[in-house]
Structures are given as structure tokens and as C-alpha cells.
Predict the 3D structure of the following.
Amino acid sequence: GAVVSQHPSWVICKSGTSVKIECRSLDFQATTMFWYRQFPKQSLMLMATSNEGSKATYEQGVEKDKFLINHASLTLSTLTVTSAHPEDSSFYICSARVYLGGSSGNTIYFGEGSWLTVV
Amino acid sequence: DAKTTQPPSMDCAEGRAANLPCNHSTISGNEYVYWYRQIHSQGPQYIIHGLKNNETNEMASLIITEDRKSSTLILPHATLRDTAVYYCIVRFGSSNTGKLIFGQGTTLQVKP
């Protein structure tokens, strides 16, 4: 399947600082990427849809000024958590849509995830 | 996107087939059924998807009922490494805006 890579895998930052997480599609071009967060023992929650060359679309309740998303190229989307606080500590996961062709439509592949701990 | 209903947990003996059910009674005609799994502390892994025909790949088989209101994911010979949370999701597979909305999934425990 298509490969989606995230970096860093884990990061610790001080409260009040900003941290950037990268999501790359390694063997395909992704016009659309998605960002999720997941708290322990909970399911994935969609945060936003990232479209190459345009502004991201945020889900209801997600602060766009706090979670900055940039999708400047067809293989890279970034999520920046600004002025991070301990409650932002979570598992952040990106995904990218791949067009499969024919009647298979398209599907979505996920990165390995990034653990953020804010101290 | 239509909602799905899955049992919260299931057990399966190692080497036996694991049959994971999913109800999606409000699915529309152009929505696909997708299955993903998430092993602890990793990103979800794509397993399989289908529209109305049964599908099989190297990981699993997907059986969709004729009325498309339910489906079953089959892992033919479960191993301990198949222990994970399995998510059944319906989405517009041919749409450029189709999102994956995760429910609570089924926690599959494969036992020796």
C-alpha cells in the first residue's frame, strides 16, 4: 500500500511553545490529507482536512488558530500546535487519500502517528 | 456519511477464522465499506474496502450482504499479531471530499 510518513514520532515540548509535525506521502502525490488526534483509550477524532494549495477545513470545535495546518506541496502537510499546553498532549495522526483508479475509488492511508507531550 | 454499529469486543482462538460483523443500515448507494485496524500506539492500517461485491486480498475477505446493510470482515487464520481494534467505516469512496469518521470499533483479542 501507499506509504505515509510522520515526523517526529514523539516530541516533548514546554508549555507555551509551538511544535510542528510533518506528514509526507512517500510514493504518491496527495492533494488531500487529514489530521486526527487520539486520546488514550479513545477513538480517532478528525481535526481537519488539508487541501494542497488552499486553506484547511476544520471540524467543528477545533481551533484553527491553535492548530495551524499547511499543505504547500503535494507530498507534505504540516500541523503546528501553537502555544501548546498540557491538555494538548495527545497522539496526532495524519492520513492521505490515494486514488486507486477504476471502480475501486480511492482510499486513505495513515501515518505512524506522533506522540506529543507538553510539560 | 452513514453510521456503523460494531460489537465492542470479540475473542478468537489463534489459527481460527475471525469474523467481525458490522451493521450499516443507512448506507447509501454510492458509499463504500472500509475496514481499518489499529494496533496499540500505531496509526490505523488499511485492510480492505468494497462497494457491493465481496472482496478478498492478502489480509482479509469482506462479505457484504445483498441489501448492503451489513458486512463481515473475515481474517481466515487469526494470529496473535491480529489483536487490534478493528474499525468499520462507510464513506464516499469516489468523492474527493469523503472523510473517514471513526466510531469505537471492535477490540479483537486473539488468544493462544
Remarks:
- The radius of gyration of chain A is 14 Å.
- The longest strand of chain A covers residues 90-99.
